[in-house]
Design a protein that fits this description.
Elements: E1 12-15, H1 20-31, E2 35-41, H2 48-51, E3 55-60, H3 69-78, E4 81-85, H4 95-103, E5 107-108, H5 113-120, H6 122-131, H7 146-156, E6 160-164, E7 173-176, H8 179-197, E8 202-206, E9 211-221, E10 226-238, E11 241-247, H9 254-270, E12 274-284, E13 289-296, H10 303-310, H11 314-322, E14 341-348, E15 350-351, E16 357-358, E17 361-362, E18 365-367, E19 375-379, E20 386-387, E21 394-402, H12 405-417, E22 420-422, H13 428-436, H14 438-442, E23 459-464, E24 468-472, H15 493-502, E25 511-515, E26 520-523, E27 527-533, E28 538-540, E29 543-544, E30 551-553, E31 558-561, E32 572-577, E33 611-613, E34 642-648, H16 659-667, E35 670-672, E36 680-684, E37 704-709, E38 715-718, E39 721-725, E40 732-735, E41 739-741, H17 747-751, E42 757-762, H18 765-786, H19 795-804, E43 819-823, E44 832-836, E45 841-846, H20 853-869, E46 874-879, E47 883-888, H21 895-907, E48 916-918, E49 921-928, H22 931-943, H23 954-961, H24 967-976, E50 979-984, E51 992-996, E52 1012-1015, E53 1019-1023, E54 1026-1029, E55 1034-1036, E56 1039-1043, ...
Parallel strand pairs: 1-2, 1-4, 2-3, 4-5, 34-42, 49-57
Antiparallel strand pairs: 6-7, 6-8, 9-10, 9-12, 10-11, 11-14, 12-13, 14-21, 15-16, 17-20, 18-22, 19-21, 23-26, 23-33, 24-25, 25-32, 26-31, 27-30, 27-32, 28-29, 28-31, 34-41, 35-36, 35-42, 36-39, 37-40, 38-39, 43-44, 44-45, 45-47, 46-47, 48-59, 49-56, 49-58, 50-51, 50-57, 52-55, 53-54, 53-56, 60-67, ...
Keywords: ATP-binding, Biotin, Hydrolase, Ligase, Nucleotide-binding
Cofactor: biotin
Organism: Symbiochloris irregularis
């Protein structure tokens, strides 16, 4: 580091490289008292070598800047470096760079430029080797034409190698069996040499068919002293690039070892070699002769195994030799006395099953073996690293050390077994096959080793992904609802659970959820599978297969799942595989949450080319077993309504809804809206009257409440529109929920399609618990039958008999009603209500419907008391503003026991008014009324609601609703406020429900009605009296005021996030905004994501006693403000009512006009046309053609929007558009004709 005068207290060394070698050199620098200076390009900003660096400099956006000598030297000068370590690759063997460093006064930690020039051309290196009495392969000097190359090849004797003289890493090398192949490859070898190394020279060399690649590590002082540090066997290669290295060589005996190391020493001494280098030899197994190949004038990738067996540190030596002021290594005193055996494997981002095709993408899981077991891992990746296509595929070098080769091989097998790299294809499984092979154990490792290695990945390859196919497991992520992480998991849990049981899998095994249109998959390993759920056609190698019955799949088989049956109800099916799909666990689950880009395969739906790893410990399922018909989900006939069982609460009648509302809810028929998805199923139906005129402090609409946690499956009224909150939904919000769907009934919402009808049937707690226990029993029976030694053709009837005989024992349950228990308010207690929220949740709320921090503190004390009890069966506790939702397992923790525990805990709580809480103050930048938030508003106006008092400006609406003069007043209030976080997960992942500590800053405003389908990540909004920051792109209802930094970091790779806490905020934090411009925010967001911008965070204590005293001093101002706000809210509510009536009238008029003219023409008049139809019910997001347009086959004609996803509909033919039957924002049904195209003749 530098002192205040800019003086450097430690010598600095620039490391002109990237990745794992930078970390390796940095480690030695620090050990020797040097400061490493790390450089990086923007694509590498989140590489471990950058994140860990104390001193670092960005070279720029270009991934090629690691070879920009001028920029590297600029950094070295600016950072006052004394030396440059080049690592390997890039400029490490560039003589001009060496000279440029030395001209700049920098010590180059490697060989001299003269040495590099001597060995950089293979033909001159051969000549120098011969002069040093080192044997070389028969071959030629540079050849200048095909015919000359053929002549030299014939003289040498086939087969031969054509080699680019400036080459390395297998580039520009071709095996030629005859003259024709020489002619064919001559130009390619020169072209690759020119492109990669700036030299098109090519020469001919004898090709040894039974060969070993053995190299010797040398180190010289540049004055003629050279030592050898043993040999390394590097014969296991693909495309002439090393995969496995070991030291010593299993091929070499003592006499051979002495000869080959002596030859390497002679060569090094003749060259007066300086620093680390490697002399590579080719060994002919048939003759036991070795031949010089080349000298790598740099530190070798595999130097680590030499360090392990010699107990030396080659990087230390390089630094000590070259950095001024350090004690130079005493090479003359070195005695080569190796001990033990070391093996290294290169773990690469590549697909061995596809000829080692490079693989880029997100690494979702990295796990290394324990280093204490004789394992060393040099790597630059961790969970969450994005592998770009710009650089070498090397991810890590895994090295093991043993006293013998047998011990080292055993350690290698164990280390590979305990290593995990998931998310992208790698060669990890391939290395396991190498290490387990008999040839490897015997040391038979020639350069043709891999040609006879049998290998097939334990995986399923995605040939075609289907419309929206994701990995899901049941019950998904648990225990994180309190911070807004949804459970995800299967929308139809019943079908996946039965499918897993059918295979003998654990109930938590991951499978595929398939929506509307299924995938085509190739199995690279045998398996037993089952397809369950709605009716989809299933084929194996084009042969039809039954659903709900397990069947065997062989290696190489193709399984195809078609489109959902349009004549039946149901939108999803599930593929279960024996043992389960083994994608990485993220926060305890493999389930995909696409909105948060987490879980499953890189947090997204499947794509072509994805590899789905299967568990190695596959279940012992036997094919041919069927789920009894009576156990399968009952789908209604097409056109009939889904009957969905619900329980009352938490927000029932008469306090939130009228009795008439509840009766209507149970008798009316609702229709599924096209904009339903895994986040929530929107419904269209009767508008409730509500029991309240408004939401009080929670908002001006009667559906608004102070933010509380939602139960999975709750029917949530966002304004007047009901939405069933499902598996990817938000945990927290400010809307009422009159009923909650029973857990065993929720699968029906997962199968409902747009325009389906739904009715709600009232259930009792006894009915719900009985159904849950019954399903669990059926799973157990089915799993047992699946793992019997032999398939039983009568198993289904036997299973049905066993299930019928099952009589579950139920605990005593309270009466089924929304309000389970009420505690009146008193001088010492705020009052409490204990409410039912389905069959797995209890909802506790304190005090009146007021925003009172004392109530939130009491909730905090209640959850703390329950945590200390470690109550078995209590899964999660999610606080709201004045409430808490408790999720429990009714099979383990009876509801009455939970209620009794809650009452006992409450009785022991201390008054909140005496509490003092830790409260961090976090300062965040805010770009007010920023462009991306404006774009979200425009999208809402186009696809959801064209007019409203809050459109087109949310900020103007906030001002009008609070009696402020305009946008400037809103800006000032937001910037002056200190927002205390009362809840997390308001709109998903760690999103705050935050309220101004000073009530004079509490702007009150209703949320969108209905909610938006899209909000940008980082958007800042106000709803009710609360501020929220959106952590991801998602639906939402807050009125948007601007944008700030991300508050969620999936892998917690940069501060202040962490792997265990990928969310920024905590309960009772205070957020304070400061204004920045859009351009400033853009820069800050970039720097923050790269870990280069550190938030200002101050620790403090929040005293409730002081806060309550402050409230008394401002009570008059707050009362006056509240009166003003109510008057303004009434006016805006009236305007909203009038707007809604106009919107409804416009929609009705459009429907009448459509019905009256039938769109003027129909497809019937276009006999020559090809009809392009809708495969599913959706909203027409965009019409991209008009009659008369010439279109190409595959060109997008219409973009449909459904389930929060946009789907382009292409033209099936080349031709002319004859007619369009839809327009933007119109709802079209499955099978409707969208466009007619007349094919070109």
């Amino acid at each position: 580091m530098a002192d205040t005068n800019g003086h450097i207290d430690k010598p600095r060394v620039l490391i002109a490289n990237r990745g794992e070698i930078v970390r390796r050199v940095s480690r030695s620098c620090k050990a020797l008292g040097l400061t490493p200076v790390v450089v990086y390009t923007e694509p590498d900003a989140l590489s471990l070598h950058v994140l860990e660096a104390e001193v670092k400099a960005c070279l720029g956006p270009s991934p090629r800047d690691y070879t920009n000598a001028a920029k590297l030297l600029e950094v070295a000068k600016a950072q006052q470096c004394v030396a440059v370590h080049p690592g390997y690759g890039f400029l490490s063997e560039n003589a001009e760079f060496v000279e440029a460093c030395e001209a700049a006064g920098l010590a180059f930690l490697g060989p001299t430029s003269a040495t590099m020039n001597m060995f950089s051309r293979k033909h001159t290196a051969r000549e120098f080797a011969q002069s040093a009495n080192v044997p070389v392969l028969p071959g030629s000097s540079i050849v200048t034409s095909e015919e000359e190359a053929v002549k030299e090849a014939q003289s040498t004797g086939f087969p031969v190698l054509l080699k680019a003289t400036g080459g390395g890493g297998g580039i520009g090398i071709y095996i030629c069996q005859d003259a024709a192949e020489v002619r064919k490859q001559f130009a390619a070898a020169g072209r690759q040499g020119k492109a990669s190394f700036g030299d098109a020279g090519v020469f001919v060399e004898k090709y040894v068919q039974r060969a070993h690649h053995i190299e010797v590590q040398i180190f010289g002082d540049g004055q003629g002293t050279v030592v050898t540090l043993g040999e390394r066997e590097c014969s296991i290669q693909r495309r002439h690039q090393k995969l496995v290295e070991e030291s010593p060589s299993p091929y070499a005996d003592d006499a051979f070892r002495k000869d080959i190391t002596s030859a390497a020493r002679r060569l090094g001494e003749a060259a007066r070699y300086r620093s680390a280098g490697t002399v590579e030899f080719l060994v002919d197994e048939d003759t036991n002769k070795f031949y010089f190949l080349e000298v790598n004038t740099r530190l070798q990738v595999e130097h680590g195994i030499t360090e392990l067996v010699t107990r030396t540190d080659l990087v230390d030596w390089m630094l000590q030799l070259g950095v001024p002021g350090l004690q130079k290594p005493d090479l003359k005193a070195y005695r080569h006395e190796p001990k033990g055996w070391a093996i290294e494997v290169r773990l690469n981002a590549e697909d061995p099953f596809k000829n080692f095709t490079p693989a880029a993408g997100l690494i979702s899981q990295v796990a290394w073996p324990d280093a204490s077991t004789g394992v060393r891992v040099d790597t630059w990746v961790e969970s969450g690293t994005e592998v770009t296509p710009f650089y070498d595929s090397l991810l890590a070098k895994l090295m093991v050390f043993g006293s013998t080769r047998a011990e080292a091989v055993k350690k290698l097998q164990a280390a590979l077994s305990s290593t995990a790299i998931s998310g992208i294809p790698t060669n990890l499984e391939y290395h396991r096959a190498i290490a387990a092979s008999d040839n490897f154990a015997a040391g038979n490792t020639t350069t043709k080793f891999l040609e006879s290695l049998p290998f097939a990945p334990q995986a399923v390859e995605v040939l075609a992904p289907g419309m929206n196919t994701t990995v899901q497991d049941w019950p998904g992520r648990q225990g994180l609802w309190k911070v807004g992480v949804p459970p995800s998991g299967p929308m139809d849990a019943l079908s996946l659970r039965l499918g897993n049981a059918l295979l003998g899998n654990d109930s938590h095994a991951a499978g595929l959820e398939i929506t509307l249109a299924g995938p085509r998959l190739r199995f690279h390993t045998p398996a037993t599978v089952a397809v369950t759920g709605a009716a989809f056609p299933v084929t194996l190698n084009d042969s039809p297969q039954p659903m709900w019955t397990s069947f065997a799949v062989s290696r190489g088989d193709e399984l195809a799942i078609g489109n959902a049956d349009s004549d039946s109800c149901g939108a999803r099916c599930y593929l279960a595989v024996s043992g389960g799909i083994n994608t990485p666990l993220y926060l305890g689950s493999r389930s995909t949450f696409p909105g948060g880009k987490l879980g499953g395969v890189q947090g997204r739906a499947l794509r072509p080319g994805d590899q789905l790893p299967l568990s190695h410990g596959s279940s012992a399922a036997r094919p041919g077993l069927s789920v009894p018909s009576a156990w399968r989900p009952r789908f209604p006939e097409k056109g009939n309504a889904w009957e969905v069982g619900v329980l009352p609460g938490p927000n029932g009648a008469p306090d939130y809804f009228t009795e008439e509302d509840i009766e209507t809810l149970h008798t009316a028929t609702y229709t599924v809206h096209y904009n339903s998805n895994r986040l929530g199923v929107r419904l269209q139906g009767p508008r409730p009257k509500f029991a309240r005129a408004d939401g009080g402090g929670g908002g001006s609409h009667p559906s608004n409440v102070h933010d509380h946690a939602y139960a999975l499956g709750s029917l949530n009224f966002t304004g007047d529109m009901p939405v069933v909150l499902t598996h990817d939904g938000p945990s927290l919000g400010g809307f009422v929920c009159p009923v909650t769907i029973a857990s065993t009934q929720l699968w029906k919402l997962g199968q409902a399609s747009p325009m389906d009808a739904i009715t709600f049937l009232a259930l009792t707690l006894e009915e719900a618990l009985t159904a849950s226990l019954d399903l669990q029993h059926k799973e157990s029976l089915l799993r047992k039958a699946a793992t019997q030694a032999q398939a039983d053709t009568s198993a289904s009837s036997s299973l049905e008999k066993q299930a019928t005989a099952f009589q579950p024992s139920l605990p005593q349950l309270p009466h089924t009603q929304a309000l389970l228990h009420s505690m009146p308010a008193s001088d010492t207690h705020p009052g409490a209500q204990y409410r039912l929220a389905g069959d797995r949740y209890v909802f506790v709320e304190y005090g009146p419907m007021e925003l009172d921090l004392n109530l939130r503190v009491r909730i905090a004390e209640l959850t703390k008391a329950l945590e200390q009890q470690r109550l078995q069966g209590l899964i999660d506790m999610t606080p709201g503003v004045r409430s808490c939702l408790l999720e429990y397992d009714p099979h383990t923790l009876p509801l009455q026991q939970l209620l009794d525990t809650l009452l006992a805990a409450d009785a022991k709580l201390q008054p909140a008014s005496s509490m003092a809480l830790p409260s961090r103050i976090i300062y965040l930048p805010l770009a007010f009324q920023e462009a991306t938030t404006a774009s979200a508003i425009q999208k809402y106006m186009k696809s959801v609601r064209p007019e409203a008092p809050y459109l087109p400006s949310n900020v103007d609406f906030i001002a009008a609703n609070n009696g402020l003069k305009g946008a400037d007043d809103v800006r000032q209030t937001v910037l002056e406020a200190s927002y205390m976080v009362l809840g997390l997960g308001d709109v998903y992942l760690g999103a705050p429900c935050a309220v101004p500590v000073d009530p004079r800053h509490r702007l009150t405003v209703p949320k969108y009605n209905p909610a938006r389908t899209f909000t940008p990540e980082g958007a800042v909004g106000i709803g009710g009296s609360y501020m929220c920051i959106y952590p991801m792109e998602s639906p939402g209802g807050y009125q948007l005021v601007g944008r700030t930094l991300p508050i969620w970091n999936t892998f917690g790779r940069t501060p202040p996030f962490s792997r265990d806490q990928p969310w920024l905020l905590r309960y009772f934090d205070q957020v304070r905004f400061y204004e920045v411009s859009e351009e400033e925010l853009k820069d800050l967001r970039k720097r923050f994501s790269q870990g280069n911008f550190h938030l200002r965070i101050e620790d403090s204590e929040f005293s409730m006693r002081e806060h309550n005293a402050f409230l008394e001093t401002v009570a008059g101002d707050v009362e006056a403000m509240g009166k003003r706000q109510k008057a303004c809210m009434r006016k805006q509510m009236q305007l909203d009512e009038e707007s809604l009536e106009r919107v409804k009238a416009q929609e009705a008029k459009a429907k009448e006009e459509k019905a009256a003219n039938g769109h003027a023409e129909t497809a019937n008049g276009h006999d020559k046309g090809v009809e392009v139809t809708a495969a599913f019910t959706a909203n027409v997001w965009e019409l991209q053609c008009k009659p008369g347009d010439k279109v190409a086959s595959g060109q997008t004609l219409v973009v449909l929007e459904a389930m929060k996803m946009e789907y382009p509909i292409p033209s099936p033919v080349k031709g002319t558009v004859k007619a369009c039957f839809v327009e933007g924002s119109q709802v079209t049904n499955q099978g409707d004709v969208l466009v007619v195209v007349e094919p070109e003749e």
